[in-house]
C-alpha cells in the first residue's frame, strides 16, 4: 500500500485545468458558445396511413429550414441566427442555443417519398410522410359457417 500525500489544492487545480480547456475549445471553435451547432428535440410516431415527425425549432424562419428526402433518408437542416440588435457582451445570460443543426432519419421502405408534406407552426416543424398503399393494413372479412373452396 502506497502512502499518498494530501494536497488541499489538487481539486482546485484540476477544476482550473478543465475550465481553461473549456475556454480554449470555445475560442478555437466556430466562435462563441452561442453560435455552436445544436440538436433540436424530435418526436416520431406513426398510424396506419402515415409517419409523422415533429421537430422543435422555435425562433427559426421558414427560409432557414431545409427539408429533403433522398435515398430513403429524411434530412432536416436549419439555422437559428443570433439577433444582432444587442451586443453579446450586454447579455447577463444566454441559455438558448444558436447556430446550425442537422438531423437525418432513415425511412422505412413503406414510405411513399413522392407524398411528403411539411408545415411550420408555433416553433414546431411537422413532416408527414404518407405510407404506400400496399403497406397500409387491409381489413379482411371473415365469413362464419362457410368453408373456403379448394
CATH architecture classification name of the domain at 34-84 and 96-135: Sandwich
Which structural class best describes the helix and strand composition? mainly beta
Output the CATH class name of the domain at 34-84 and 96-135.
Answer: Mainly Beta
Quote the beta fraction. Answer: 35-45%
Q: What overall geometry do the principal axes of the alpha carbons give?
A: elongated
Task: Give the count of helical stretches.
Answer: 1
Head-to-tail CA distance between termini = 84 Å
Contiguous uncertain segments of 5+ residues: 29-34
> What fraction, in percent, of the residue positions are helical?
10-25%
Number of strands: 7
Cα radius of gyration in angstroms: 26 Å
Major beta sheet, specifics? 4 strands, antiparallel
Mean pLDDT: 81
> Order of strands across the biggest sheet?
1-2-7-6
Order of helices and strands: HEEEEEEE
CATH domain topology of the domain at 34-84 and 96-135: Immunoglobulin-like
Amino acid at each position: 500500500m502506497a502512502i499518498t500525500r494530501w494536497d488541499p489544492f489538487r481539486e482546485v487545480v484540476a477544476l482550473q485545468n478543465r475550465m481553461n480547456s473549456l475556454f480554449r475549445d470555445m475560442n478555437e471553435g466556430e466562435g462563441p458558445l452561442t453560435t455552436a451547432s445544436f440538436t433540436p428535440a424530435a418526436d416520431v410516431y406513426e398510424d396506419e396511413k402515415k409517419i409523422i415527425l415533429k421537430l422543435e425549432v422555435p425562433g427559426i424562419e421558414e427560409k432557414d429550414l431545409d427539408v429533403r428526402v433522398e435515398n430513403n433518408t429524411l434530412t432536416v437542416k436549419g439555422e437559428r441566427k443570433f439577433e444582432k440588435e444587442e451586443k453579446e457582451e450586454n447579455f447577463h445570460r444566454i441559455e438558448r442555443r444558436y447556430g446550425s443543426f442537422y438531423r437525418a432519419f432513415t425511412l422505412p421502405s413503406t414510405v411513399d417519398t413522392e407524398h411528403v408534406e411539411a408545415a411550420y407552426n408555433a416553433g414546431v416543424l411537422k413532416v408527414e410522410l404518407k405510407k404506400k398503399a400496399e403497406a397500409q393494413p387491409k381489413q379482411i372479412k371473415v365469413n362464419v359457417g362457410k368453408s373456403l373452396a379448394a
